[in-house]
Design brief:
76 residues; mainly alpha
Length: 76
């Protein structure tokens, strides 16, 4: 489905993620260079996906939730 430019309300999932990423990572750092930005954002991504509980996933980290779904569906 096409989302018109300038209409973020048409894609609330990415807008919610973008807001979280900006407030929890980008707004907290003044990056000295591109390499530092890559390192910090990768650390944040790892924390967000592997350790941080998400209420929409029953307070599980996305990696744990994905593993449980994979096991329940016998996808391995």
């Amino acid at each position: 489905m096409y989302i018109k430019p300038g209409s973020p309300w048409e894609n609330p999932f990415i807008e919610s993620f973008s807001s979280t990423f900006r407030s929890e990572c980008l707004n907290r750092w003044v990056f000295a260079n591109g390499h530092e930005a890559q390192v910090v954002t990768e650390q944040w991504r790892q924390e967000y996906n592997l350790h941080r509980p998400h209420s929409s996933l029953g307070y599980l980290a996305p990696a744990v939730f994905a593993q449980q779904v994979r096991l329940s569906l016998n996808l391995d």
